[in-house]
Write a structure and sequence with these properties.
single chain, 172 residues, alpha+beta, 5-stranded antiparallel β-sheet, 3-stranded antiparallel β-sheet, 3 helices, 23% helix
Length: 172
């Protein structure tokens, strides 16, 4: 299959994401993050889109990204700073190359932002994205900035923020 895959690569083939364990003459085997072995006929791979997250992950790591939409009432510089701080605090995100924030759309009711970060191990992308999303929520909540994704339509009368979690051992 044009040497696009080799054992150890972390890939997405169709709807399946996993680590290539074997490339045979007739099929390719992947192990998913849930420890499921999936066999995909090479004829299917040739006819479908395959994303190889490992192939270009050199010393700079692989890039993963996430998006958020924020109302126009939040200053864009503050949003950038909060996203970058969330990236800095997320375990598994490489400090270099530095994370990047892009404004990808100026919609009717919100600005769409994309945060791109580098990770050393692309196979850990799901866990790193989960941790990054938690950090984003924490940083925005602490700053009092609402995340109204993905369908922000109108500013509510009061801020929509998460309440702090109760202290360990206390009853909410």
């Amino acid at each position: 299959y044009a040497r696009a895959l080799r054992p150890g690569d972390f890939v997405q083939a169709g709807d399946t994401v996993g680590t290539v364990t074997e490339v045979g003459l007739l099929s390719t085997k992947l192990v998913t993050p849930k420890r499921e072995e999936v066999t995909i006929p090479n004829a299917v791979l040739v006819g479908d889109r395959v994303i190889n997250y490992s192939k270009l992950a050199d010393s700079r790591g692989a890039i993963i990204s996430t998006g958020v939409t924020i109302g126009y009432d939040a200053p864009w510089r503050q949003v950038h700073a909060l996203l970058l701080e969330a990236a800095r605090r997320t375990q598994g995100v490489l400090p270099q190359p530095e994370p990047l924030v892009l404004q990808t759309a100026l919609s009717d009711f919100y600005v769409a932002y994309e945060l791109r970060v580098h990770v050393e191990h692309p196979e850990a992308r799901v866990a790193i994205l989960s941790a990054l999303h938690a950090e984003i929520q924490d940083r925005f909540n602490e700053a009092g900035v609402q995340i109204m994704s993905p369908h922000f339509e109108a500013q509510p009368a009061e801020a929509v923020l998460a309440r702090p979690a109760p202290a360990a051992g206390s009853v909410a």
